[in-house]
Predict the structure of Chorismate synthase.
Amino acid sequence: MAGSTFGERLKVTTFGESHGTAVGVIVDGVTPGVELDESYLQVQMDRRKPGQSSVTTPRKEEDKVTVLSGLYEGRTTGTPLCLLIGNRDSRPSAYNDIQEAFRPGHADYSYMAKYGLRDHRGGGRSSGRETAARVAAGAVARKLLEARGVSITAYTVEAAGIRCVRFVESAIEANPVRACDPEAAIRMAERIEAIAAQGDSCGGVVECRIRGAAPGLGEPVFDKLDAELAKAMLSIGAVKGIEFGEGFAAAGMLGSEHNDPMNAQGFLSNHSGGILGGISTGEEILFRVAVKPTSSISVPQPTVGTDGQERVIQTRGRHDPCICPRIVPVVEAMACLVLEDHYKRQAALRA
Amino acid sequence: MAGSTFGERLKVTTFGESHGTAVGVIVDGVTPGVELDESYLQVQMDRRKPGQSSVTTPRKEEDKVTVLSGLYEGRTTGTPLCLLIGNRDSRPSAYNDIQEAFRPGHADYSYMAKYGLRDHRGGGRSSGRETAARVAAGAVARKLLEARGVSITAYTVEAAGIRCVRFVESAIEANPVRACDPEAAIRMAERIEAIAAQGDSCGGVVECRIRGAAPGLGEPVFDKLDAELAKAMLSIGAVKGIEFGEGFAAAGMLGSEHNDPMNAQGFLSNHSGGILGGISTGEEILFRVAVKPTSSISVPQPTVGTDGQERVIQTRGRHDPCICPRIVPVVEAMACLVLEDHYKRQAALRA
Amino acid sequence: MAGSTFGERLKVTTFGESHGTAVGVIVDGVTPGVELDESYLQVQMDRRKPGQSSVTTPRKEEDKVTVLSGLYEGRTTGTPLCLLIGNRDSRPSAYNDIQEAFRPGHADYSYMAKYGLRDHRGGGRSSGRETAARVAAGAVARKLLEARGVSITAYTVEAAGIRCVRFVESAIEANPVRACDPEAAIRMAERIEAIAAQGDSCGGVVECRIRGAAPGLGEPVFDKLDAELAKAMLSIGAVKGIEFGEGFAAAGMLGSEHNDPMNAQGFLSNHSGGILGGISTGEEILFRVAVKPTSSISVPQPTVGTDGQERVIQTRGRHDPCICPRIVPVVEAMACLVLEDHYKRQAALRA
Amino acid sequence: MAGSTFGERLKVTTFGESHGTAVGVIVDGVTPGVELDESYLQVQMDRRKPGQSSVTTPRKEEDKVTVLSGLYEGRTTGTPLCLLIGNRDSRPSAYNDIQEAFRPGHADYSYMAKYGLRDHRGGGRSSGRETAARVAAGAVARKLLEARGVSITAYTVEAAGIRCVRFVESAIEANPVRACDPEAAIRMAERIEAIAAQGDSCGGVVECRIRGAAPGLGEPVFDKLDAELAKAMLSIGAVKGIEFGEGFAAAGMLGSEHNDPMNAQGFLSNHSGGILGGISTGEEILFRVAVKPTSSISVPQPTVGTDGQERVIQTRGRHDPCICPRIVPVVEAMACLVLEDHYKRQAALRA
């Protein structure tokens, strides 16, 4: 493969498997002279790490990030940052029983087809563990975006079949589901715990708002801002779809309803989700991603082994009954990487 | 900008504006020695060209494709193909009245913010006209995929609020909406014509099926097959969302419902849409894209001019009341480009 | 192949074969709003075109460049420029006799090995004809560099075994060899004509000076400015080597001789050729390229045919006895593309 | 910057500074299932590491390479290899005295111009230390090339003004200069030691032979095999030039002398250095690089400080009087990376 690199002018390359020594990332193209330290990065790492609440995996990972290069006397040097996150709590033993079987919903079968071999330990490279490196890299981009006045916030709008009916930003980090509706959050948590108790899992929808982005970001015709965000989001394992602004609801609208009129003060609505023709308009950029139910469940499932023999599998690992709350910081991280990269690309165009 | 190039090993670069001399594309990395001629490409061009029916724009474009390079004695040479499509029916006069105003739903405002200037003639580079070049390039990829036993078919599943309830493949090219349900197609056409008569437009949903794709296509972690397809589809102007397999419906499912079990014969279901961990499973690859209502309508809309003055605009061009039928070949073309590129990338990995 | 694209933020993609309909190039990433017209580009085209003097091929090509896209009302729009150059004087007949034989010094054999087939007409894609597209693209970059105060000048310093002993800039375009020494130029021309009369060819050395380049251009560690210039120059068919500053002579120097000391006014010497650690210093960037003798000669040479049979070949085309004067504008064009691309990359880094 | 990544299908990204915690590299796109272990990589690391002999720096670095990812049960998995090399013997103290001055011949001044700040400790990212990561990555490529029957050997042909007059392959690794002529090697070592005793340094020329490379490698027109090798070699700090086959000597030859004739057995000579039209012919690929004298010398040199004040500098670090013997494995490593990448690119083209 050679798909471990993302971005053009802010370029990130991740490495590492779920049960190897470590995961990490190189961030190249960082603006020099920017104040940065590990504690700033750790804030985001802590939002993604396992074991945060009753609705996430009890697995324990400290997810301590270390900067191996690119920093000098507390500032970025413009040379590549290498961010390393050690793997602490790896229990390959827990995976031995599934060593020779393809877990339904996992990449086991497709990876075997691609590589002709398999690192069965918790999915190896296909594990969500790899996203820890993305969150670290995204935090670097977030730091650069802060100076531009851009803020990026994601949150759960649906989980376990329950939808948020209001948006209370202050509630997001105050509930274990990271939902934007405090009342819905309570019912989501209850439902998720009940599903977990049955050894099952559930999905949800995560929404992301990007505020303060300059107009003019995105590159016609293939590197449209929404196209790049779509690639970034679908590169997250559990994400099965994305929609911008009205999204799929636009299919049922009339042009006269969907078009955003303007007056001298600006746009009068934002059905487009802040992007027209693939270029940011300066309005809030709004998109939602569909999150599938976690593939790892302890309900017995029919499958086959690498030997082609049919068997019933029951994964005993300690998994997230609903991945939404832990995907929120990953969605933000990827959005940060896309935005900062496009700020740099726009600067190159107009230079 | 520098976003006019797509693909890594099969690399396409498009150029041209809606009302310039021509649009075109360079296709680099084509397997040498493959039989190809203009008539094969023209078949796809004719599916996208305007003026095909009562539900598409009456604008006339012959969309004749010419091969300027890369072919010798009826075979590809392995050198870049340059495919040129002249612009015939350009009536800048029809656009003079909107010269100084930003058309709601169009890229006029965002392009002005990006470039600091504007080619107002029908959207210039942001026009759907550019997709003619993609269809030509996609036809080249389709030719390569045919030899691999891969077939790619897209069709309308929803338009003007009407949904298809059955899948009749033979019906698709036999109705003007390119819908997979012949009865629904009739009602769609009637509704679209009625909407057009009011000077308005409507959206829809286009679905795409890729059959015969080998397992193992796609590259962890950022260049997942679904991530690349998502970027390709969102790079089409009118597309506002994409979902794979169950897509957004997966948000409401349990893991035990969504996971695809296997037996010795293979997968017992395909909720994943033929992609696991971003890698093809060998099952049918299935995705849907949300198509927004055409931005160009003749209903009066409030907007502002480049002078900042408020005004009411009424675009008088001859536009598509519903772009779904003409987006179908574009969706197929982009899917062909992604698939063939990944076949070549997989060959490089395993080489 | 997929090697027809060059550059990251100023991206050029060429197409076309020596005896096809046309050659051309797409230039993507051009700064919007820059005044440009075909006559400006034509000035450079005329410097490269054949039939300029007694020391170049008598072949006649008007090399008229046409802009198909990316210009509107005399200014760049920021969208891709497509520059087209028609092929006029193609005489495949002249090549029929060599149709089945591999011409010594040409890419015939290696292309056959690569592609498994062959477009024998004058080398097809491997022909120097392709550089016409580079010169057109380079002229666009030159226009952007002029606004930055950068000037790029190349000239012959050695040809047919005769070396220039002085640098008279005004003499360069005033002699058919484009030599920087008017007296040497006369002897070079005489020697080249004598060699041509024998049906043979000769090589030379072309030097290039880049003045006014800002310090700080080039990207550690792989995309060093000299590394990118080296790739650009070696991508020119007849070039067999490159050296910067003292170049190969540095091999025989001491550190105390080669290091460039500084005082408050700046560098006291420029042995480095204006590049330290791969980054421009602000001094004049100086490099030389080795140009091999033209491969096409009418002296009989032993070779083999595609049938494996040995034969003697005598190419009868109308060729350049010394390609140096026509390579000069190509060297300048490639240098322009590299410099402008790095200005844009530096803008992205510091954005 | 974003220049820390090299290659298209075999993609390497390096990180780290001379006096930071570590240097390292991610190698992405490695063929899965290949047997590999750290001891294989260490063999090449040991050839580059300092302190090998009287003609290299006495600095001590163990240069122990550790594989952090991409290996499982002794085989490559196809996922990114992360190779880490710790920095042991860093003595920033030795650099304090030059903290505020620009060292002649070093990248200090140009880096300051690029980044607006400076990591003065031994050059930071611009230090030759970074090449340790390249050698580790190159060893991975070498392993893949061995299976293809490709061997790559570099050696010193000139140092301190002394040239090799014969090629004895067995002698190369048996003398401290890695020269191909054992007698010349002795005189080179003596001369280098004498120069070192004066606190000065000297340059040289390193030649590289690639045997067993298939014909057809390299991509027209910009990614020619010689163009890519040139970029790779000029990306090595001390390299100031490169020439292929006859190289600069070709400038003085006639076409009838330089062209390589063929008979039924193949080429009768190899003036081209195994590359025609940028594509390998199957003959031995031969090139030479010019190596400048080490910039770090203890001879007093006039320079200026970051404060603009003139001063005399005398670098007291422990440096290589001639870098040729330690550049040999770096040249080989970069050549390995280029070759293996092009094997994969060719596989993609013909797939």
Helices of chain A lie at 38-48, 93-96, 108-115, 131-146, 182-197, 225-234, 255-258, 324-350. The interface with chain C takes residues 8-9, 29, 31-32, 78-79, 220, 343-351 of chain A (CB under 8 Å).
